[in-house]
Amino acid sequence: TWRRRVGFEAADEVSRTSAAFGTRVHAACEMVAHGYPAPTDADVALPASCFAAWFGDEVIEAVAVEKVLIHERHEYGGTTDLIARLRGRGLAVVDIKSSKSPEFTWPLQLAAYADAWEEMGGEPITHRMVVNLPSNQPGILRTYTYTDWDRDDKAWRSALRLHRYYERRKD
Q1: pLDDT tens column, 93-128
Q2: What is 22-69 written as a DSSP string?
Q3: Rounded to whole angstroms, what are the CA distances from 128 to 113, 131, 137, 166, 170?
Q4: Sign of CA dihedral 86, 88, 91, 96
Q5: What distance, in Å, lies between the first and last C-alpha atoms of the chain?
Q6: Could you give the 3-state DSSP secondary structure of residue 83?
């Protein structure tokens, strides 16, 4: 509906701009997670400093940053933003998002990452969360914690089965 309302070219430009911003925010957060100071580039300075403050307050140890995860049995892979040991909460899979609002796919993505991490022999995940640095609200950081793991795991596996069903039949 939004694409039709604003026009496809304008929507594509907004999407490109948002994706580029998200890439820069991720790079800035990755630097912080690796122990470097928050970047001061004009467009990512606020999100980076918010992430640095959160990271300093909440993270004991960055166990893995931008870690490629492969689930051999279920034949999928992806790159998680952060596996971190959090103060008082154990080991967390953390995804960084710059979306303006939460999306229903976030807990499914975290479920996939957690499953692949453990399949690869990683220590059990005890916490799943998104750190959201909304592109339309510089200087704001929100965290979303997902606790209904049974529902999220089932939904993720169903989505994976549906994707495979589609792939087998699209030819």
Answers
A1: 999 999 989 999 999 999 999 999 999 999 999 999
A2: HHHHHHHHHHHHTTPPPP--TTTHHHHHHHHHHHHHHEEEEEEEEEEE
A3: 10, 10, 23, 28, 33
A4: negative
A5: 29
A6: strand
- 2-51 tens-digit pLDDT: 778 888 787 777 777 778 888 889 999 999 999 999 888 888 899 999 99
- What is the pLDDT, as a whole number, of residue 130? 98
The mean of the pLDDT values for the chain is 92
- Angstrom distance (rounded) from CA 30 to CA 21: 14
Burial of 48-58, coded b for 16+ CB within 10 Å and e otherwise, reads bbbbbebbeeb
